[in-house]
Amino acid sequence: MTEVNALARGEIAGLTTNNLDAHWMPFTANRQFKKDPRLLVKAKDMHYTSADGRQILDGTAGLWCCNAGHGRQKIVEAVQNQVAELDYAPPFQMAHPKSFELAARLAALMPDPLNHLFFTNSGSESVETALKMALAYHKANGQASRTRLIGRERGYHGVNFGGISVGGMVANRKQFGTMLAGVDHMRHTHNIAGNEFSKGVPKNGVEYAEDLMRMVQLHDPSTIAAVIVEPVAGSAGVILPPEGYLQRLREICDEHGILLIFDEVITGFGRLGTPFAVDYFGVVPDLVTTAKGLTSGVVPMGAVYASSKIYDAFMTGPDHLIELFHGYTYSAHPLACAAALATLDVYADDELLTRGARISQYWENALHSLRDCKHVIDIRNIGLIGAIELEPMAGEPTKRAFTAFLKAYEKNILIRTTGDIIAMSPPLIISEDQIDELTGTLRGVLNALD
Ligand SMILES: Cc1ncc(COP(=O)(O)O)c(C=O)c1O
């Protein structure tokens, strides 16, 4: 036993705790990373501090999540106080008060009828939850034949089996077998031709929404439960919905009794200059998945908004019976609730849920000033999101953008790449000077690329 405890403490001869080998890192080129690690040790406001003591300007809000910036005192204190007061409360048949306060405040932020919140711990779990709710809703509603789920090519809905089944990023699917049965995909809406260097939503492409009509005709609406889309797709390289596209999806869903799910894991909490994409596009879905900005990335948490129609469909039968057989040990964890409540306070105090609208013009101008840099084939933006698409190197897709990412990090800016696309989504507190620093540094990086 002594030996087990010593092992747990890392006190065994020969074991060094700075050995990088044991940690199998997610979505990472492990061997490349471990040869030349990029370790972040501190963060405050718009900057990370790297292990080698540099200040790194955060152009990605961590991973699209630290919308309030880093180390915000109010959030830090709320989490510290919470862990000392109530570390954990079981969420099944028991609860703690903060989860109800949080749900009520979140519901108030969304238009009617999205009035009910189900808590999870991540975007992936929010997606699984929403898909299961959609299936169970139709069953509760006497339409059990509606089992088919429709996603979209290049969609990203996290990494669990439901999410990769409706998702459309090939690399995230091809290693994992057959996934869920009964899923179909609409085409993605990315078409640079005719929409080059678009500012805000692209003008062309509303007809892609008619793919949903094709699914309806092919499968019959009586078999379709739900369609899930990201209002703005982030992980596949910032793919914007053409003008009128989301409205048309809503119309088709209404006409055929199909539930519409918006995956707002990245667009939620101010990213587009409005609280949600729901507000930006004026389209109200039946279910909305969120995570990331909900706690500004401080404690893992997700939440699914469900419309009253969906919630009410389950609230039948004897009172003592569980209505939905779904939930997580850490649903509505006290630390996550405390972090989310304090994050909402910070968003309100600093007007961050709408700040993106005020600086998006500056952001747009700065991004598009990179149009003439080497290898750039497209630039697009919306709210505080920007993408720069590079011409791939012949025979070596992704290499050019990954090189840009490494060089940018050397030059003290954090960007993100997917394929040959650079995606940026800074904390919503970014200043105009910092936008200039980000794009100015990127200009040098791009122009130095092979
Ligand atoms: C649209 C969307 N859905 C789901 C997820 C998955 O979230 P998580 O990594 O928290 O599971 C992400 C993550 O980037 C996302 O962008």
From TrEMBL:
InterPro entries: Aminotrans_3, Aminotrans_3_PPA_site, PyrdxlP-dep_Trfase, PyrdxlP-dep_Trfase_major, PyrdxlP-dep_Trfase_small. Its EC number is 2.6.1.18. PROSITE patterns: AA_TRANSFER_CLASS_3. One of its GO terms (molecular function) is pyridoxal phosphate binding. Signal peptide: none annotated. The keyword Nucleotide-binding does not apply. Its cofactor is pyridoxal 5'-phosphate. GO terms for biological process: biotin biosynthetic process. Keywords: Aminotransferase, Pyridoxal phosphate, Pyruvate, Transferase. Belongs to the class-III pyridoxal-phosphate-dependent aminotransferase family. This is Omega-amino acid--pyruvate aminotransferase.
